[in-house]
């Protein structure tokens, strides 16, 4: 399952965008969004999902269980 | 951010502005003047400061209390990301290390920021310094930060560049900072003990991992010290900001002061914690209070014997334009700037700056003359005097229009700037002048007098009642000279028994964001 950003909590600080190893994050209409088809949960790159690790607002980058899990 | 490079850099913490400091171990001039000694008001280098350092800081409104009357800086907000979390920061707002909590600056792209800077520099010849600070950490956003610097350096090489950081990413970028000729870096350092740090920083993001607790503070501490040492080695001026948090690091900041001094920081700026529940910060929600004016001054005084302290920092908003304390950002909104197509006028700027140098020399001469009058006098009376000014180093603001008062400490050794009290909030938002007055009186409660260009009858009476003498006799005179002249008449009247010299109480530090435009 990829990660998603809860738009109402995102401060648009942009910290997550450059950290994503898959370029899955971009700005859209004043908040940041994750492209589910690009997100690999950072598997293969880092131990922790980078967007979660850097985001200043707790529980803003969260698992999107509505989308199937990434297959490595 | 535009790049995908590793961002383990630190975020910028904003630097706040301040003063020039002399070599460690001496009391310096500039911002605060040495204890018991007048601060150097002249444009001559203080005797105990390396000439190279003075050259770099003398026109920097943030580093020299004297220069901030004449020169201006602006900050552009291009770097919103941060790599640590501070308990006094709510990231919905600007970096609290730079700005007061609760302030939001307009975020710009590097191109917009460069254009805005040039527009302001062309319109305001006093503008000599461009800073990148919060929101966020400039070094957590290195591409945006350095791109902005490159664009400005190409068009306007006379503008000084500075940045503020929390230090986490600093060691990775010191060489780039050197290459770009950035001559001032501010690091916010609140602790040198990780156990204390753990109470201030809940986490950091470093080398692709989030660290918490003591470990986080330990890494941050090591990176800060390493970054400071690397700057010193390369001859880049480094100022240290510390936030004074009562019961957490207030006593500890004396250790911090020693640690940063020994590593070559040229100035240490201790700022009060600004904390209110409505800011939504951890400290605000926990009800942690900020220090009082007296607690802050006592700590600054204790550290001053060891290095210069900066006291005129207003914790102003990061995109402020204009002389410190006078924000003109409304004239330079992105929209207005982008419409304009202008040429950068270096010649007009040089002409203006020459006039300022003359004025500064005149001012120094006036002060020397007053000091002469005090020579040979013995008195251990030291008093605080508030001054209303709108710039130029003169007593030239009407009491009722003052958004802030500058506080000078006067004694037989001279007058030195020790801080400022902002009162702008009280005069806004539907409060009439009558409501504002008691608050202003509280903010000036530790002063014996307030020097103004003009004052109405009603505030005059309330001030007198509170034991603060309103003085308009020195309207439009230079501040240092006026404060010294007042002090002289004060001690003479005490000697003649006309007035009583009684200890004054403490004063309040305003807890709101500086949003006055
Ligand atoms: S979990 Fe990793 S791959 Fe997915 S969006 Fe976050 S940073 Fe990118
Ligand atoms: S790090 Fe968090 S708050 Fe910042 S842009 Fe990304 S999702 Fe939004
Ligand atoms: S105050 Fe701390 S957490 Fe907030 S932006 Fe500045 S460095 Fe980052």
Largest sheet: number of strands, sense, barrel closure of chain B: 7 strands, mixed
Tell me the major beta sheet of chain A: 2 strands, antiparallel
Estimate the global geometry of chain B from the Cα principal axes: globular
User: Quick one: overall form of chain A?
Assistant: globular
Unreliable residue runs of chain B = 1-48, 309-325, 425-433, 512-517
Question: Terminal Cα separation of chain B, in Å?
Answer: 29 Å
Helix content of chain B: 25-40%
Number of helical runs of chain A? 2
Which percent range fits the helix content of chain A? 10-25%
What does this structure look like?
The complex is a heterodimer of chains A (72) and B (517). Chain A has one domain: Alpha-Beta Plaits. In chain A, 12% of the residues lie in helices and 19% in strands. Chain A has helices at residues 16-19, 50-54; strands spanning 3-5, 25-28, 31-34, 61-63. Chain A has a two-stranded antiparallel sheet with strand order 1-4. Chain A has a two-stranded antiparallel sheet with strand order 2-3. The mean pLDDT of chain A is 90. Chain B is α/β, with parallel strands linked by helices and 517 residues long. Chain B contains 14 helices and 15 strands. Mean pLDDT of chain B is 75; it is low at 1-48, 309-325, 425-433 and 512-517. The interface between A and B is medium-sized, with 20 and 21 residues. The structure holds iron/sulfur cluster (3 copies). One iron/sulfur cluster binds next to helix 2 of chain A.
Short description:
Chain A is α+β, with helices and mostly antiparallel strands.
Give the topology.
The complex is a heterodimer of chains A (72) and B (517).
Chain A: E1 3-5, H1 16-19, E2 25-28, E3 31-34, H2 50-54, E4 61-63
Antiparallel strand pairs in A: 1-4, 2-3
Chain B: H1 51-57, E1 72-76, E2 84-85, H2 110-123, E3 127-132, H3 142-155, E4 160-165, H4 170-179, E5 184-188, H5 194-197, E6 203-206, E7 209-212, H6 213-233, E8 237-244, H7 253-262, E9 267-272, H8 282-285, H9 293-304, E10 321-323, H10 334-339, H11 346-374, E11 383-387, E12 404-411, E13 414-422, H12 433-443, E14 449-451, H13 457-465, E15 469-471, H14 479-495
Parallel strand pairs in B: 1-3, 3-4, 4-5, 5-8, 8-9, 11-14, 14-15
Antiparallel strand pairs in B: 1-10, 2-6, 6-7, 11-12, 12-13
Helix pairs in contact in B: 2-3, 4-6, 11-14
Bound molecules: iron/sulfur cluster (3 copies).
Residues 11, 13, 82, 84-86, 89, 91, 95-97, 134-137, 166 of chain B line the site of one iron/sulfur cluster.
